[in-house]
Amino acid sequence: MGKYADSPEWADVVPISQQEHMPAPLAQIAYTDEYAEAMSYLRATMASNELSERVLALTEDIIRLNPSHYTVWLYRFRTLSALPTASLTTELTTFLNPLSLRHLKNYQIWHHRQLLVSAIGSYEGEAEFLVDMFAKDAKNYHVWSYRQWLVRHFKLFHSASELAFTEQLIGEDVRNNSAWNHRWHVNFADGDGLSDSGLVAKELEYAMGKIELAAQNESAWNYLRGLLAKGAGVEESKVVQFAVKYAGLDGGEVKSTHALDLLASIYGKDPAKKESAVQALELLADKYDPIRAPYWRYRLAMVNSGVAAS
């Protein structure tokens, strides 16, 4: 990137320096000369509301210098939207995809992607690109948030391909909480899934099957607890029967602290099961999760006082 002051293409523009734009900043940031000059020309074009090919090139230069500059991204999208020759699909595949793979944690990139995909009106190719992103970081918050946005925006609830995707990731890492969270989103975030007793029963079996693979995996237990708390047609007795196998309340091996926690919550609501609730919480406080002993003691006090706390 050469100096804009030496470019005939920009000879008609009078740059606006940061000092002119903000005469007395509280905290002066030490920008490079290259970045400061590019921004001075962007301020001038924004002041005149110029939306042109050269502005598009200017925003690209600035983004490559500082990909977190939110205002530049917004002005770039405005410029793209105003230019009849601009291709939003090319912007997505040629410019944004490589940049995303280099800057994995950049929120501005993903917001720009939402604007582009929404304007294009199609999510074609997005699943394939996200595979590349997850290959770099399977638990990237920004990527998962974007994928959930795709589900909401394009009404992909209960999508077979989205569920297959979560099954693949959970199969690779049963403790991938992001994949579990996305599975819940696909199945139930539309508000209808939890009233479908058939779907809830299927997901209950799915969660219990994964717990059998890793009994101390909190993600699967949380999924199961969500189904128990909100799902239609869930038999609490079936969940209790399953959890008992991992809790060791009969003197056997405690295989999961999450099973103890769940049973303490269920038994704590039944005066006839108070003794078992107390036993579960004492095991957690004294032996299996002493680092959180104050919390378990609080729960224990609630049970003893007749108030269920979960």
UniProtKB/TrEMBL annotation:
<comment type="similarity">
    <text>Belongs to the protein prenyltransferase subunit alpha family.</text>
</comment>
<dbReference type="GO" id="GO:0004662">
    <property type="term" value="F:CAAX-protein geranylgeranyltransferase activity"/>
</dbReference>
<keyword id="KW-0460">Magnesium</keyword>
<dbReference type="Pfam" id="PF01239">
    <property type="entry name" value="PPTA"/>
</dbReference>
<dbReference type="GO" id="GO:0005953">
    <property type="term" value="C:CAAX-protein geranylgeranyltransferase complex"/>
</dbReference>
<keyword id="KW-0637">Prenyltransferase</keyword>
<protein>
    <recommendedName>
        <fullName>Protein farnesyltransferase/geranylgeranyltransferase type-1 subunit alpha</fullName>
        <ecNumber>2.5.1.58</ecNumber>
        <ecNumber>2.5.1.59</ecNumber>
    </recommendedName>
</protein>
<keyword id="KW-0808">Transferase</keyword>
<dbReference type="GO" id="GO:0004660">
    <property type="term" value="F:protein farnesyltransferase activity"/>
</dbReference>
<dbReference type="GO" id="GO:0005965">
    <property type="term" value="C:protein farnesyltransferase complex"/>
</dbReference>
<dbReference type="InterPro" id="IPR002088">
    <property type="entry name" value="Prenyl_trans_a"/>
</dbReference>
<keyword id="KW-0677">Repeat</keyword>
